[in-house]
Design a protein that fits this description.
single chain; alpha/beta; Rossmann fold; OB fold (Dihydrolipoamide Acetyltransferase, E2P); 2 domains; five-stranded parallel β-sheet; five-stranded antiparallel β-sheet; 7 helices; rod-shaped
Length: about 260
């Protein structure tokens, strides 16, 4: 992806010169221009900005003050000062500036700044990839531990959107097989999981669950009605669930024994 750059200078002519030089660079996109520090802060909040080319001498809020405020952002952009002042470099780098370019601007200095920000972005992406991989490994380890038979904690781990939700068996109403996935319906909502129904039946075997059909595992505490639909067909209605659950003929007697009816 191209480096996203913002130009900040109160002098319109200087902005034109800098824009021309930046447009000569490969893999770079100019996302905006600002004439003062306040405009720069607003644009950086509204847009994704990788690097700000920032003049120091500006009215009201100068470049140094603007840089301090930019650095306080949640995801601060890199700062490359572009200025006619030659004696502020030490202060600029103390603030964390990526580069300090003295006017008149040379194309090579602009390209050097772009190269530096590309390296910075690549380094950040690498670190984020490592963090994501370690998080995935940790989540896989936790799920594996829960899948072991000797785990005694009575919670069912469900992975969704980068997190693991631990479901209490008593909150589960029904588990329904949907192809290669199993949908778990609870009082707090539904969860699409990678468990098989056989795995769930085994994990919940010492609780109050019953396999009423090849495709359904039901919490007996939520059964409200068992309806005869004729010719030996039965439908189960569950509390807090609008699904009609099919009851296999072969399971009817076993279910009656479990319920004592």
């Amino acid at each position: 992806m191209p480096v996203r750059a913002l130009i900040v200078d109160d002098d319109h002519k200087e902005r034109i010169v800098l824009r021309y030089l930046l447009e000569q660079c490969k893999d770079l996109k100019i996302v905006g221009e600002a004439a003062n520090g306040l405009e720069a802060l607003i644009l950086c909040q509204e847009k994704k900005v990788d690097i700000v080319f920032l003049d120091i001498s500006m009215p009201e809020m100068d470049g140094l003050e603007t840089a301090v405020k930019l650095m306080d952002m949640k995801e601060p952009p890199a700062i490359a000062f572009v200025t006619a002042q030659t004696g502020m470099a030490a202060t600029a780098f103390e603030l964390g500036a990526l580069d300090y370019i003295v006017k008149p601007i040379e194309q090579s200095r602009i390209e050097k700044a772009i190269s530096r920000v590309k390296m910075k972005i690549a380094h950040q992406d690498h670190i984020e990839d490592l963090v994501r991989q370690r998080l995935r490994n940790r989540m896989d380890y936790i799920l594996a531990r829960y899948n072991e038979e000797e785990v005694l904690i009575k919670r069912l781990p469900v992975r969704e959107k980068g997190k693991i939700t631990l479901l209490r068996p008593e909150d589960i109403i029904v588990c329904e097989s949907q192809g290669k996935k199993v949908f778990i319906c609870t009082r707090k909502g539904g969860f699409l999981t990678s468990f098989t129904l056989n795995q769930l039946e085994k994990r919940l075997s010492d609780s109050y669950f019953f396999r009423v059909h090849q495709a359904y595992l039901v919490n007996l505490n939520y059964i409200e009605e068992i309806r005869n639909f004729g010719e030996g067909s039965y439908i189960i209605r569950l509390e807090a669930c609008d699904r009609d659950i099919t009851l296999s003929r072969s399971k009817l007697r076993l279910l009656r024994d479990r319920l004592g009816i």
